[in-house]
Amino acid sequence: MTYFADVGALARKDLLLELRARDTLPAMLLFVVATFVVFHFSLPAHSSQLAASGLLWVAILFTALLGLGRAFVPEREQRVLDGLVLAPCDRSAIWLAKSIATLAFLGAAELVALPVFALFFHGLSGATIAGVVLADIGICAVGTFLGAMAVATRARDLLLPLLFLPLAIPIVVGGVGASVVGSPGRYLAFLALYDVLFGLLCWATFEYVVTE
Amino acid sequence: MRLVSRLSRVPLPALAVVSLVLMMVALTLVFYVAPNDANQGFSQRIFYFHVSIAFTAYACFAAGAWKALLHLWKRDPRADLESYVAVHQGVIFGTLVLLTGSIWAKISWGHWWLWGEDELVLFLVLFLFYCAYFMLRFSVDPGPQRANFSAVYALFGVVLIPVSFLAIRIAKSFVHPEVFTLHGPNFGGWILVTYCVAQAALLLLAHTLYRVELTGKRLDARLRELRFA
Amino acid sequence: MIRARKVGKRFGDKRVLRGVDLDVARGAFAVVTGPNGSGKTTLLRLCAGLAVPSEGDLEVDAPRAAVGYLAHEPLVYRELTALENLDLYGRLYRVPERRERIGMLLERFGLWDVRHDRVVSYSRGMTQRLALCRVLLHEPELLVLDEPYTALDTAGAELLDAQLVELHGERTVLVSTHDPDRVAQLATQRLALA
Q: Domain span at residue B154?
């Protein structure tokens, strides 16, 4: 159980860092609302309601990317990551803690974004909300993992969207399906499957991302 | 697996010749021997190659992931380069899938691209994914970190293949449904033989190209080592 | 405790270390010297376990929890306070009686009064002192210190001198420095990198 104690200590640190900096969350909020306004002007007059639902997922994805790009920046500066890697804790705890913290910020941003979406476009079904929750888990798990790699490369923030978007396509399919189709059950199940598969993969391989 | 390791011991020139011969046989079978398809006529023949190339691409990605696993798990010093070359071959064949599929679509249905065609869309996603693999690899200086990153990403790729395929299938109920689909020939007689020969030829070709590129890259690495020793 | 045979390290095409042999016994105080670019930092990183050699054998007979590494960078979060940083490391290293130990170290290195200030407000010397606290927090058996006197003022350097004297013989210490005279009396062995 010390594993979870480590995750807790690290997650607390990440939340503390963000609360101090106070820049990522406001930026994500502003970005997502601005994106909705852009959508309004991007959807021609007779577009269906469904088009807006689809665009919600685009907004979530790109807002998440905004936050994910910053995830490992504190560790990158001053190479603090070395300090964490030297500690006797399991390295996957670093990833898990960071994912949990990122999930918290994404969730906080959505707490505002989803009502705003309902205001601008149309109401959201329970299935959509469930889809958002499941999708967030996948986005944060895979996104923070890739963020750790991207931050160690020369291309840095250029690289994260490229690495992430192909992996995010199944999430979008699951999410849009859950929002739009009459029986969302199998899309939610698919999202859960994605979360489990990629979550396990991230957990098992993070060690290799931070060590030689 | 054992077939592959035995293949690895065949000298490269011999392999290349056999490869070439087998390709010629396959081409002959495809264009002269296999019967014409009742519905689609001559153009359907591209199918033998399209499916074989697709399978070969999957095999390359799988091989890349396997070598990646060897690198991470057994710390095999040769595995990183082998994984990279396998993925590279996979992308080459993947691009060919997109090209042959596109040509077939144009000939048969008059469109250069068909969103309704699951396999084509899957290869598009994989193409994007593995292009990002190369961007990742070239954005890191050579060394253990680059090898680790590449290996991990290759593993993600191989998990993505079935997940993406499933996603594309279930996306059909809300994405604009298309009437056009690729369908394979009914297997039987010469058709089966032709297909098998084409598949074998392409797998052998892929392995030959893999060996060629691997040899070249190994030589490069050795040269660099000697120069900077 | 540390055994290196013909250890080499390459970064791509650049060779940073070559053919290094090293034997550091338990309780020894080893000093590594050499001009800039001779690979001191790389060697220390290898011994701390942050990197693996490209060639040769390296054995370090200490688990991660027993190693303390002082890098060029202080390895602390700038936006957190000294207390928060040390608390995090204390938890990760499972330091017993964490609060007391942190307090004791902060006081020893003269940081008690600024413990609630964010590291970003510290001077370079203060940050280095905090890094020393971080290294000593879990009472490691093996201390790997990369140019620990960097940025320390006279008072800080004297604190470090005292600390090293205390550690001498009790723990195994591997130090790299530009100023070998400072630790000359404590050194039980020397390694000069070309």
A: 45-223
Name chain C contacts of A79, Cβ cutoff 8 Å: 71, 73, 75
Residue B135 lies in a domain: yes
The answer to whether the beta carbons of residues B53 and B100 sit under 8 Å apart is yes
Q: Which residue of B has its CA nearest to C14?
A: B228
Spatial separation of the C-alpha atoms in residues B199 and C181, rounded to whole Å = 72
Strands C172-176 and C189-192: unpaired
In B, which residues are within 8 Å of C46 by CB distance? none
Per-residue pLDDT of chain C (194 residues; tens, 9 = 90+): 899 999 999 887 788 888 899 999 999 999 999 888 888 999 999 999 999 998 899 999 999 999 999 998 999 999 999 999 999 999 999 999 999 999 999 999 999 999 999 999 999 999 999 999 999 999 999 999 999 998 898 999 999 999 999 999 889 999 998 888 888 888 999 998 87
Tell whether B138 is covered by a domain.
yes
Cα distances (Å, whole numbers) of residue B55 to A42, B58, B113, B193: 40, 5, 20, 16
Q: What CA–CA distance (Å, rounded) separates C194 from C190?
A: 13
Domain count, chain B: 1
| pTM of the complete model | 0.92
ipTM above 0.95, yes or no: no
Q: What are phi and psi of A87, to 5 degrees?
A: -65, 155
In a domain, B96, yes or no: yes
B77 close to C (CB below 8 A): no
Residue B117 belongs to a domain: yes
Contact residues of A toward C, CB < 8 A: 2, 5-6, 9-10, 13, 16-17, 20-21, 74, 77-80, 82-89, 212
